[in-house]
Automatic annotation (TrEMBL):
This is Cell wall surface anchor family protein. It comes from Listeria fleischmannii FSL S10-1203. Residues 237-304, 318-385 form the Pesticidal crystal protein Cry22Aa Ig-like domain. It comes from the Bacteria. Coiled coil: none annotated. Residues 392-472, 479-559, 566-646, 653-721 form the Bacterial Ig domain. It holds the Pfam family Bact_surface_Ig-like.
């Protein structure tokens, strides 16, 4: 019989030199083979070339008289054609053909008394029972389905030499199916291992020298250790949570099996009553099943604790009013409670107390209390000690509706405060220091049927006396008043309109009343310069008739003007050459002034973003400090710019000007020295045209240019270069 090894998958490192390229290895637990990679899924079986050539004499137990190898020249070798895989030739004729499909299927055709198969060694545990499944179908793709094939499946101890397994009888098998006709159904084979390494062999053979045996092997399954009866172990420990915590019962839980290894992914939660919204003790149960069906269980306890107590206790204490001479215990009527501890009044402590009941005054008492968790609550109350009851009386004058605005009268004794009630409604309370009194009632009293009462109180607010106000009515004058918004920093007058019998308009700022002014023609302008300074001021305009009776009030809406802004630049100035400092400006700049060595010169009006400031004779040295200053229209400084000074030796010369009499003279006259070419005139910063001069004297027509003795007038002498 000729035996050809097609290929093998190696589970652990076992010498196996049949293949020229070593197959892929899969690692399993030592001494406990659970799964072996299926034989036909090994990529080493697909389109391999260069199989190790085998001579019959190399096979252990070879007997040419009994195994059918009569011709010593017969040799088993690899046919390199990839579509055939491995072939065995006897006497020059193909005796065996193997086709590897590559999807886990192997087709083998044998001629004569050849045997062809696949084999694989793997680790086993002596005494353990193993099983695996496969599917084998008879028939031949080349010769047709009528060619009946047989399949032999055997398990043998593995001695380390694969060739010892290939010849029947060379090593006693553990178990063997014998030759069976495959029927295409899945079959399961079982065996009991008696060594640490076992060899599985699936071979196709034909005992008829002239026969053809065709078998297709597929779906070779995993080798399963069916002796596993040990339950897997779940590793889970009791947990302690706090109310409000999130909880995943599988977090941190693992499972292991003595055969399967880590089977954490198979853990199931079988029960879980944990409720993290409330404190309590709960249970979580788990189960896990290994490949052999052994079930491991575990139950843990989950304790949910109440959240830490961080709420401060509350002290219930109210302000108190005493009379001079009263006794006082600061703990009387004071209680404390806590959301967890309940009533903790007994733990209250007085931390400070300056109450002196021998004299009137206002005092403080402070308390503290601590709950079981250490949270401290505090409270401070005010204790008022008042003088003994006082005596006092109030009278009220007759009030004329549509004429009077104030309720007036007198008071005596200990009256310190007054209130006016109209039909039971209290208008307000005012402090009074001397009689008579004057209480503003405005338009709150409208009918002679109104019930108006003046009430007098002592300093503690205790009522001392009441007086009924007699009411009369006069045909009223009428009128309305409006007030326009007022912009602080911009407006000088409060303006508005009025109607009806309005004859005067007054102003009240923050309760201070200013003189009323006469008004006419339906509008008014009330000068408020310097009086309204903040948008938080309360400004009210009041309309009066000719008798001084108030007719209406209007609140003034206040706004504040945004501050003016602006920038200024100054160009370099060449002494002896330039007559003007020039530059540019932006924003709200309205005037530009000049400061030389700390001396400030008159600011000039500017416009259109640039300026020219006459500096003739003022800047005399490059060591001078010259600063240009920008102002807004109100004279507020906005920006400064220093002038860079250069020196240019000019033509030398002097100029003198005769006095000018306004209303009499028309020309500015004078004399000059040096090499002068022209004379110009500057009035209040404005430069006028230059006129040619010679002979040492000049006259410049100034008609209409010099108007007052306060004008700033300069006669300017120029050389030929600067004329």
């Amino acid at each position: 019989m000729t035996t050809a090894l097609i290929g093998s998958q190696v589970i652990t490192t076992i010498p196996f030199n049949v293949l020229a390229a070593e197959p892929t290895q899969t690692t399993n637990k030592t001494q406990q083979v659970k799964i072996s990679t299926p034989l036909l899924k090994n990529t080493a079986f697909n389109d391999k070339t260069g199989w190790y050539p085998i001579l019959p004499s190399e096979v252990v137990g070879y007997d040419p008289g009994t195994d059918g190898w009569e011709n010593a020249s017969n040799e088993m070798y690899q046919n390199d054609a990839p579509e055939y895989g491995a072939s065995t030739y006897v006497g020059g004729a193909a005796m065996t053909t193997a086709s590897f499909v590559g999807n886990g299927t192997l087709h083998i055709t044998n001629h004569g008394q050849n045997e062809f198969g696949i084999a694989q060694p793997f680790n086993t545990v002596p005494g353990h029972t193993y099983s695996f499944t496969y599917t084998a179908k008879t028939g031949d793709t080349e010769y047709g389905p009528d060619f009946i094939g047989t399949l032999n499946v055997a398990f043998s101890n593995y001695s380390g030499d694969w060739r010892a397994m290939r010849v029947p009888g060379a090593s006693s098998p553990i178990s063997q199916t014998g030759y069976v006709v495959p029927d295409g159904t899945a079959k399961t084979i079982s065996f009991t291992a008696n060594s640490t390494q076992t060899y599985i062999q699936m071979s196709v053979g034909e005992h008829d020298p002239d026969g053809i045996n065709g078998v297709t092997i597929s779906n070779i399954g995993d080798v399963i250790d069916t002796s596993d009866t040990t339950k897997p172990i779940i590793n889970a420990s009791d947990k302690t949570l706090t109310v409000g915590d999130s909880y995943n019962p599988l977090t941190g839980v693992t499972a292991s099996d003595d055969t399967d290894g880590d089977i954490t992914s198979k853990i199931k939660v079988t029960s879980n009553n944990v409720d993290t919204s409330k404190a309590g003790t709960y249970q979580v149960s788990y189960s896990v099943t290994d490949a052999a069906g052994n079930v491991g269980t575990k139950t843990i306890t989950v304790t949910v604790k109440a959240a830490p107590d961080t709420t401060k206790p509350v002290i219930n204490a109210s302000d108190k009013t005493l009379t001079v001479g009263d006794s006082y215990n600061p703990l009387t009527g004071v209680t404390a409670s806590d959301d967890t501890d309940g009533d903790i009044t007994s733990k209250i402590k007085v931390t400070s107390n300056n109450v002196d009941t021998s004299k009137a005054g206002t005092y403080q008492v402070s308390y503290s209390v601590t709950d079981a968790a250490g949270n401290v609550g505090t409270k401070t109350i005010t204790v008022t000690v008042k003088e003994p009851a006082t005596q006092g009386a109030v009278t009220a004058n007759t009030f004329t509706i549509n004429q009077d605005s104030y309720v007036t009268g007198n008071f005596t004794g200990g009256v310190k405060k007054l209130s006016v009630f109209v039909n039971g409604k209290q208008l307000s309370t005012i402090n009074v220091t001397s009689s008579p009194y004057k209480f503003y009632a405005g338009r709150n009293i409208t009918s002679v049927n109104d019930n108006v009462v003046v009430v007098g109180y002592d300093s503690s607010g205790k009522e001392l006396d009441r007086a009924q106000v007699a009411l009369t009515k006069e045909n009223p004058s009428q009128g309305t008043l409006t007030a326009n918004p007022f912009t602080i920093g911009k407006d000088g007058y409060v303006t508005g309109n009025f109607t009806g019998d309005v004859a005067k308009v007054g102003m009240v700022i923050n309760g201070k009343e200013y003189t009323a002014i006469q008004v006419a023609n339906g509008s008014y302008r009330y000068y408020a310069g310097g009086k309204i300074t903040s948008i938080n001021d309360t400004v009210t305009m009041i309309a009066y008739d000719k008798s001084g009776k108030e007719l209406d009030r209007a609140q003034v809406a206040l706004t504040k003007e945004n501050p003016s802004q602006g920038t200024l630049t100054a160009n370099p100035f060449t002494i002896g050459k330039d007559g003007y400092v020039t530059g540019n400006f932006t924003g709200d700049v309205a005037k530009v002034g000049m400061v030389i060595n700390g001396k400030e010169y008159t600011a000039i009006q500017v416009a259109n973003g640039s300026y020219r400031y006459y500096a003739g004779g003022k800047i005399v040295s490059v060591n001078d400090t010259v600063t240009m200053i920008a102002y807004d229209k109100s004279g507020k400084e906005l920006n400064r710019a220093n002038v860079k000074l250069n020196n240019d030796a000019p033509e030398m010369g002097t100029i003198a000007a005769n006095p000018f009499t306004i209303g009499q003279d028309s020309y500015v006259k004078g004399s000059y020295t040096g090499n002068a070419a022209r004379v110009g005139l500057i009035v209040n910063g404005k430069e006028y045209s230059r006129v040619a001069v010679n002979g040492g004297s000049y006259q410049y027509y100034a008609g209409g240019k010099i108007l007052t003795v306060n004008d700033d007038v300069y006669a300017v002498l120029y050389d030929a270069k600067r004329a």
